[in-house]
Backbone:
């Protein structure tokens, strides 16, 4: 009656080519341990399922249990049988983190009535209903597969953590490192150079002794192929030199642990060592991050370490930044963690390079606190992939936090490590309330060596997951999408900037190569889908900065006149809430062509007006009470709180703060324009419509303009003639001033209609230029700032020294017993969301906002 079925049953004894291929594929990656004969033929297996639904419901899976022993895989056998066996295998491979394998094309068969009846029986099963049928928060039954959390292996509240996966070339020691969190009781000030710091001569292997060296380090020319837990197979070699006895004081180096980075150590003197950092894997560059261990220390000796292959010509080490040191004995006995240490710190150019790529050196001296101690050195406070997993495990196992924080797997990295996605929001009471919520997207660690981004993210999560009234209010009105570690592979192997693809992920947000850049591809698609559902009011990617102090934002200038200067309001508010950490003066809003592939610019072009990159320094602050001191982990975590605090100010239904900040921004821009004209020795009346001036041209950094070959030749001839004639000093000044007058000023061009402000004369006078407004009815001319400032505030401004001042008032709190958050004092009085389900807030007088005055 069924000739096709009879033919299929006759051929069941023949080997299936696809099954044979999958057997070898799974066995190669170590996920298949059973014998080849125990893998059932898919045709026979589907035939049994289709013709005996009781067999499926009984829970007896026969030999299949030997192949897939864990409950998650048993659950997959209960999926509707109208899915082809190929789909089952591909989902199984994805859940195991195995690279996808394309199967040969097979014609799909429609679901027959008998199969539908089997599905109806399956859906009535209590086992299946408890696992796969979804009941949404409004009580409606949604008969479909669950979200990806059940399709991927994921740690449970009582299960072990997923160990990190390493490239197979990497050797990894079998030790679990853990550092305690500790805040220094006293401020850690910058190092003050004396001018007598020694510049050690680079000796190298010819005159020194190699005491530690990684041999197999994949560099440029090689590429990532596969990964496994524990990295390279085989016995882990001892790379440090063997001590000759108890009197041997040679330091023992090690960096083959998570986030570690040290390739070679050379002993050039009794207590002096030259260190070479490992480049980012599969590249020949990006040496900045370091993190390594030393053992066999001596207490009374002064050691000198010199890193010889840094690549950046400028560094915060030139302005007083100190390396970090961690003593294991101090941590065990005195509960002391990472601290800034070092003397005779110098950052200088290495003159022994190969001539193709200049290297720079960092040298410092140190005295260890104990004999026979184990110490660590790092560029900044480490935050590893395992640290993140431990934190997320505590959240998942918390019965309260897990109610409003849903942990999902966004994707798998190249090495198969999980990229986590957190969705944080309070449950909604009605569908309308759920749809009305706006979204906020935050991410960190796209650059793995910028661990300060993880500490800010941790501070944000600590606050948004707390029982604070403000945190509950934020969860009521927003849906937070958080990707806490975008580049787990780079974090694990100790890279500074790249993924295992050997590329900077923050330049590939426009990519279509899902297989090469999965973390970025899935993040962008997640945000794209989110924008289709609801408005995203804020996108912020947390980074670290190696050349500037303080914390600041990079944003994007809006071309829409309706939202002119609006993208600067959030950074200005943040500078008021954290005046001793955040510098609005360091913010920049220019979109450069080389930054088109960054997350900030791509999300802005997708429609998120407030799209930022938050840069936090590796050093410290030059502002307020924290001036000339290093940032601690507590300082960075407090900034995560201030992001939440500023978000409430920014979205306050009472727009008083927003409009005052907008007026202040216009006044600041007005002053900047005047400053530009004064630099050119001109005067201009800006009482008219001046809002059409191009912001990008006003804020453009002082760079030498590009010159043609003819201009470069003329300049070279002029310089040669000046050297020969030994001209007096004022000649180049007059020449430079003349060339300045010949250049056409560009900072008052109309960004939408450049022809309306094009100069008509060859040598125009700046005071004759007329700036045409676009719409007189919607002029954005700033009001008089004196009308916004009360008389008492103006008197206070006259008596205080120049700078920004803030009026402080106590923050509302409905939980007096709640533990105070350190260093999180609000700077503005609260008048936000007067009508909430927790009661009506008290109306308070809004303080005045003073104008910045920059030196």
Residues:
């Amino acid at each position: 009656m069924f000739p096709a079925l009879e033919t299929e049953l006759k051929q069941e004894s023949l080997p299936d080519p696809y099954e044979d291929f999958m057997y070898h594929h799974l066995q190669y990656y170590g996920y298949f341990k059973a014998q080849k004969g125990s893998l059932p033929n898919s045709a026979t297996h589907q035939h049994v399922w289709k013709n005996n639904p009781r067999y499926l419901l009984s829970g007896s899976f026969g030999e299949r249990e030997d192949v897939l022993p864990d409950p998650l895989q048993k659950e997959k056998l209960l999926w509707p049988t109208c899915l082809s066996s190929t789909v089952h295998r591909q989902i199984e491979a994805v859940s195991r983190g195995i690279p996808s394998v394309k199967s040969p094309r097979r014609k799909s068969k429609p679901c027959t009535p008998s199969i539908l009846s089997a599905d109806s029986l399956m859906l009535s099963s209590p086992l299946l209903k408890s696992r796969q049928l979804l009941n949404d928060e409004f009580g409606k039954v949604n008969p479909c597969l669950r979200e990806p959390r059940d399709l991927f292996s994921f740690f449970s509240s009582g299960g072990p953590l997923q160990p990190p996966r390493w490239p197979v070339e990497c050797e990894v020691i079998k030790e679990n490192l853990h550092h305690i969190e500790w805040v220094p009781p006293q401020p850690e000030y910058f190092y003050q150079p004396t001018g007598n710091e020694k510049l050690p001569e680079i000796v190298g292997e010819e005159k020194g002794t190699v005491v530690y060296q990684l041999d197999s380090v994949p560099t440029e020319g090689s590429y990532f192929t596969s990964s496994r837990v524990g990295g390279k197979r085989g016995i882990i070699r001892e790379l440090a030199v063997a001590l000759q006895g108890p009197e041997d004081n040679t330091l023992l180096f090690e960096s083959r642990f998570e986030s570690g980075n040290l390739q070679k150590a050379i002993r050039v003197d009794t207590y002096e060592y030259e260190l070479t950092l490992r480049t980012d894997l599969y590249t020949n560059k990006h040496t900045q991050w370091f993190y390594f261990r030393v053992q066999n220390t001596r207490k009374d000796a002064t050691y000198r370490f010199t890193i010889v292959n840094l690549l950046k010509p400028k560094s915060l080490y030139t302005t007083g930044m100190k390396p970090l040191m961690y003593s294991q004995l101090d941590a065990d006995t005195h509960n002391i963690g990472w601290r800034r240490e070092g003397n005779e710190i110098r950052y200088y150019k290495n003159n022994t390079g190969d001539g193709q790529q200049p290297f720079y050196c960092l040298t410092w001296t140190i005295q260890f606190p104990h004999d026979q101690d184990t110490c660590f050195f790092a560029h900044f406070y480490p935050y590893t992939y395992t640290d993140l997993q431990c934190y997320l495990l505590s959240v998942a196992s918390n019965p309260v936090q897990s109610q409003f924080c849903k942990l999902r797997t966004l994707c798998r990295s190249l090495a198969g490590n999980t990229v986590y996605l957190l969705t944080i929001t309070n449950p909604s009471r009605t569908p309308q309330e759920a749809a009305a919520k706006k979204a906020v997207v935050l991410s960190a660690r796209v650059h793995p060596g910028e661990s300060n981004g993880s500490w800010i993210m941790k501070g944000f999560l600590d606050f948004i997951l707390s029982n604070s009234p403000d945190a509950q209010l934020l969860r009521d009105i927003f849906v937070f999408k958080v990707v806490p570690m975008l580049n787990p592979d780079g974090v694990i192997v100790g890279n500074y900037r790249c993924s295992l693809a050997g590329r900077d992920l923050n330049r590939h947000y426009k990519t279509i190569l899902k297989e090469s850049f999965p973390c970025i591809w899935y993040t962008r698609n997640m945000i794209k889908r989110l924008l289709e559902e609801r408005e995203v009011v804020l996108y912020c990617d947390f980074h670290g900065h190696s050349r500037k102090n303080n914390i600041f934002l990079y944003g994007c200038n809006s071309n829409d006149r309706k939202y002119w200067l609006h993208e600067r309001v959030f950074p200005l508010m943040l500078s008021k809430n954290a005046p001793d950490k955040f510098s609005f003066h360091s913010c920049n809003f220019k979109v450069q062509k080389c930054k088109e592939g960054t997350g900030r610019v791509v999300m802005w072009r997708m429609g998120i007006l407030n799209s930022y990159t938050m840069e936090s320094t590796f050093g410290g602050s030059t502002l307020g009470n924290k001036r000339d001191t290093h940032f601690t982990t507590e300082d960075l975590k407090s900034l995560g709180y201030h992001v939440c605090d500023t978000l409430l100010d920014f979205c306050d239904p009472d727009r008083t703060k927003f409009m005052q900040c907008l007026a202040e921004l216009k006044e600041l821009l007005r002053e900047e324009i005047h400053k530009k004209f004064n630099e050119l020795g001109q005067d201009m009346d800006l009482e008219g419509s001046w809002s059409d001036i191009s912001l990008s041209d006003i804020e453009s950094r002082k760079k030498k303009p590009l010159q043609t070959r003819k201009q470069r030749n003329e300049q070279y001839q002029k310089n040669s003639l000046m050297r020969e004639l030994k001209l007096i000093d004022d000649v180049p000044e007059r020449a430079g001033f003349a060339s300045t007058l010949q250049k056409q000023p560009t900072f008052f061009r109309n960004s939408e209609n450049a022809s309306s402000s094009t100069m008509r004369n060859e040598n125009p006078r700046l005071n004759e230029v007329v700036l045409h407004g676009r719409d007189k009815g919607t002029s954005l001319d700033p009001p008089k700032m004196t009308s916004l400032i009360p008389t008492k505030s103006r008197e206070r401004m006259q008596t205080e020294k120049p700078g920004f001042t803030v009026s402080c008032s106590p923050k509302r709190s409905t939980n007096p017993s709640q533990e105070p958050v350190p260093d999180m004092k609000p700077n503005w009085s609260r008048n936000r969301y007067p009508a909430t389900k927790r009661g009506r807030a008290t109306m308070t007088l809004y303080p005045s906002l003073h104008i910045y005055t920059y030196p």
